[in-house]
Amino acid sequence: MNINRELLTLSYEQLQWLSPIAILLVGVLFVICVASVFNRGSKQITQWTSILSLFVTTLSSYSLLDTATPHLLFNGMLVLDKFSYFFFIVFNLSGAATILMSDRYLDLDEMNHIEFPILILFSVLGMMLLVSSADLISMFISLEIMSLSVYSLVAFRRNDRLSNESGLKYFILGGAASAIFLYGSALIYGATGSVRISSMLTAATVAQPSVLFALGAVLVVVGFLFKIAAVPFHMWMPDVYEGAPAPVTGFMTAALKAAMFATFIRVLIQLGFGKPQWNAFQTSIYQILWWSALVTMLVGNLAALPQNNLKRIFAYSSIAHTGYLLIGLITALKNQAVLGSTILYLVSYVITTIGAFGILSLLAKKGDTGLNVHDLSGLSQRRPWLAAALALFLFSMAGIPPTAGFIAKYSVFYAAVENGEIGLVIFAVLCSAISVYYYLRVIVFMYMRNPAEQATWRRPILTAVVAIAVVALLTIALGFSPSSLIEATGSLSLAQI
Amino acid sequence: MTFYIFAVIAVVFALTLIFKKNPVSSAFSLIVVFLSFAGIYAVLGAHLIAAMQIIVYTGAIMVLFIFVIMLLSADVPDLDYSRTSKTTKITALIGGLTLWGILTWMFKGAELTKTGTHTEEWITQSGGNTQVLSELLFSEYILPFELTSILLLAAIIGAVAIAKRKRGKKT
């Protein structure tokens, strides 16, 4: 009956495991101080210190990547394993890319405030804590750190009604989803007597899990499905994506989705998945995910067809990609050995969307206008490199070789077929075929229409060009020689704690 | 028995909170809801939580709520529900009733026997609610405790970022 009264004493070794989180936390506090001390010209300094702290965090996570066994810290509230460190790198790099690409965009709308990089840093910190939480309380709090920063980023265009509306919408619906998640956690606590996710394993793997526990687990799953915008919990997404500033939309699509998926996988593995034998409770969770994947792919792709605004197209395509990712998730639940292909998909999707939204941020006119498909007419004549890069990212999203998107889709579908999800895969391939239409439509406008007389686009700044070039090169490189990433993601696995 | 009294009060005032059109009376309904929550916590033996519920929620947060309502919307007319369409109302009703049905059905079959490590006897043995809670906050639950401070900092900065509007052309 005695609780572990371990006070906050961290050994040197534990501190080392914790170093990515600690570095970023110190980084955020340092950036806040710097931003307040230097009044004039603080924007540049804030941006560069933020990027610096993100890169240092990336390096420290990279140095810890060969962690073999999971480390439990803070009485088992935080689990730091290879999986966490890998996703730390993904989050930090996408945060850095977002800051690099957003500078001129924010200037244009006179909203280049020092809070922007600080809020990005906070949400990255929240994601890192979220993906390494081994406890429902810390999971909820880190989820809120991440979400609150992103809510404010969505409403960042203060004087615009659309941005304010989407911020409020996201805040209220996200709050509702958090409440559902919290209620589910409370029921799990009521059923198991513990908030550690390790307690979920024993409660879920008995032959007949208690009704209370099952209800709690289903509510937690619903909370996750909301956050990754799976159908039928997707209604908030297009409006929020359209109203949010373009770089923020990219950050949300990429990093936030990756964080939620990674955490979702951790929770599901903890519910006793990852091996072929399931009890009735696990089968019903599987059925929820199966149907959700099916409907998500269908709705996402069909709803994207009539859209004209690029941000809305990407929003619906993001819903469709959630569907493909759910297939990967379902396959990983059957056989944990193929978890790597799901993570590969996640990473290549993150890279592609960060790049695509970086270009949208460069193309956007004041007030986020000029992002309709016909506004891009003749882009290839005025800004050939940007057009080529956007075309590359669109090809990657559609899954056309030789891009990262193709390799990712191929490996997820291959793994799914091998594990007996042939029906879902056939459906997914048909849906991808539909999706080619709306991706190619953008390319047709860019390359086969003449530009309007007065159509001009800003000259992109150097930092954004460098960031986009790196992302584009990654997309091609992964398409041609994916073996290193496949190896890296393939070695990730989640242990049941 | 006492639980049911507080529970009924909470539900009734939660309903008036939603259906009252005047924001101030909604806010006062919320105060009653919070007070009855405090009552439920006290019935459960969590006296510290009950006291904190009254001080923090009913006291501090509600004063802020009412202050903001008075400041901002003193001249704003009452909320208008007539714009909500009939289909929205009906689907909301159906959804709410379904959820209620599912929860009742689930809880009827559930047995609440499992308890955590912190039983009532254990708490009295180790020196009462306040001591146990504070010791736990600084030992077992130190991480969530510290994370909450990060959360608050992020929330403050986010609020500043949204609320700080540009005044005129010059700054």
List keywords for this structure.
heterodimer, A: two-stranded antiparallel sheet, 20 helices, globular, B: mainly alpha, Four Helix Bundle (Hemerythrin (Met), subunit A), 7 helices, 75% helix
Sequence-ordered SSE layout with sheet pairings:
The complex is a heterodimer of chains A (497) and B (171).
Chain A (H helix, E strand, L loop, with lengths): L11 H6 L1 H19 L4 H22 L7 E3 L4 E3 L1 H27 L6 H17 L4 H19 L6 H32 L5 H8 L5 H17 L9 H7 L2 H25 L9 H25 L5 H25 L4 H25 L15 H4 L1 H15 L5 H15 L3 H27 L13 H19 L2 H8 L7
Antiparallel strand pairs in A: 1-2
Helix pairs in contact in A: 2-3, 2-5, 3-4, 4-5, 4-11, 4-14, 4-19, 5-6, 5-11, 6-7, 6-11, 7-9, 7-10, 10-13, 11-13, 11-14, 12-13, 12-18, 13-14, 13-17, 13-18, 14-16, 14-17, 14-19, 14-20, 16-18, 16-19, 17-18, 17-19
Chain B lengths: L1 H18 L3 H21 L3 H27 L12 H24 L10 H6 L2 H11 L3 H22 L8
Helix pairs in contact in B: 1-2, 2-3
Protein model, in words:
The complex is a heterodimer of chains A (497) and B (171). With 497 residues, chain A is mainly α. Chain A has one domain. Helix content of chain A is 73%, strand content 1%. Chain A is built from 20 helices and two strands. Chain A has a two-stranded antiparallel ribbon. In chain A, strand 1 (71-73) and strand 2 form a beta hairpin. In chain A, helix 10 packs across helix 13 (310-334) and helix 13 (310-334) packs antiparallel against helix 14 (339-363). Chain A is globular. Chain A starts with 11 loop residues before the first helix and ends in a 7-residue tail after the last helix. The mean pLDDT of chain A is 88. Chain B is mostly helical and 171 residues long. Among the domains of chain B are: 1-74, NADH-ubiquinone/plastoquinone oxidoreductase chain 6, subunit NuoJ (Four Helix Bundle (Hemerythrin (Met), subunit A), Up-down Bundle), CATH 1.20.120.1200; 121-164. Chain B has helices at 2-19, 23-43, 47-73, 86-109, 120-125, 128-138, 142-163. In chain B, helix 2 packs antiparallel against helix 3. The longest helix of chain B has 27 residues, at 47-73. Chain B is globular. Classes of the chains: A mainly alpha (497), B mainly alpha (171).
